[in-house]
Amino acid sequence: MQLNDKLSGVGVAMVTPFTESGQVDYQALGDMVNYVIEGGVDYIVALGTTAETPMLYNPERAVIAMYTAHKINGRVPLVMGCGGNSTSEVLDQLREFDLRGADAILSVTPYYNKPSQEGLYQHFKTIAEHSPLPVILYNIPGRTGVNMTAETTLRLAHEIPNIIGIKEASGNLEQMQQIIDNRPEGFLVLAGDDGIAIELMERGGDGVISVAANVFPKLFMECINKAKEGRYEEARQKWVDADMDDAVEALFAEGNPVGAKCALSVMGKIGPTMRLPLVPGTPALRERFKMLIEKYDLH
């Protein structure tokens, strides 16, 4: 199977569980890896936004990368988050991380600096030239302050063979459609928002890198697997029957990954601990998840 096929469908953007004292809870992380794999996800994404990566020290990131690869043990592909707002710092990560267990890297548009489109092009061109693994771009302007246009994405896709796809979290379906319609063969277009995954796939997209699949992987996969088979009406009906809109909205009501950790703690999978400046979900959010989990048997 080609790598592009392996990275279609659902990649789960893994949370990083912490102990009550704020240390990385590796036992819980390992349990989460097993939980999502048993839930049927197609691959795992480590050290992304949902992992609270900005609050992790580089040595912690390196250990999480190794631990996750070891725990997966080849059962599903692994995509490793490797990004930042300094190009040279990203190159340092590529040199220092043990990437032997990974299949590709996911690299976010540089945040805070607000580079031009040419700056974005040069940033990713440089990363791709130095990366030992294929690169998936990650466009999320709501967090980074800069939108990578379809034109820039397509320029990178056509000119740099080592760039194999994009996680598009701009929320702009027309921008995503432009990429889908003009991409080179095999270039992946993945939704960055759970709520539009089915629609993007019906438009020709390849899947989603999901937050929701942390919490209810089996149910989420039941929806997306129907879409993968081209059964879009059935996929949408399953989504409606399970009230997935309400569940996904709850996951983001107090921000990501606050919602995912809150839900998982209600389910007894991990603790609710966050690292500042993020704080755990409110009692009201916990009650909301208790109701949703009981009513819809989320798992």
Which CATH class is shown? Alpha Beta
Strand order of the largest sheet: 1-2-3-4-5-6-7-8
- Our count of domains comes out at 1
| Total of DSSP H or I helical runs spanning 4+ residues | 15
Report the uncertain regions: none
Radius of gyration, taken over Cα atoms and rounded to an integer in Å: 18 Å
CATH superfamily: Aldolase class I
Architecture per CATH nomenclature, i.e. the level-2 architecture? Alpha-Beta Barrel
**Amino- and carboxy-terminal Cα gap:** 29 Å
Largest sheet: 8 strands, parallel, barrel
Q: What characteristic shape results from the CA principal axes?
A: globular
| SS class | alpha/beta
* Topology-level CATH name: TIM Barrel
How is this fold's topology laid out?
Layout: H1 3-6, E1 9-13, H2 26-38, E2 43-46, H3 58-72, E3 78-81, H4 87-96, E4 104-108, H5 117-130, E5 135-139, H6 141-144, H7 150-159, E6 163-168, H8 173-182, E7 188-191, H9 197-202, E8 207-210, H10 212-215, H11 217-228, H12 232-241, H13 244-252, H14 258-266, H15 283-296
Parallel strand pairs: 1-2, 1-8, 2-3, 3-4, 4-5, 5-6, 6-7, 7-8
Helix pairs in contact: 2-3, 4-5, 5-7, 7-8, 11-12, 14-15
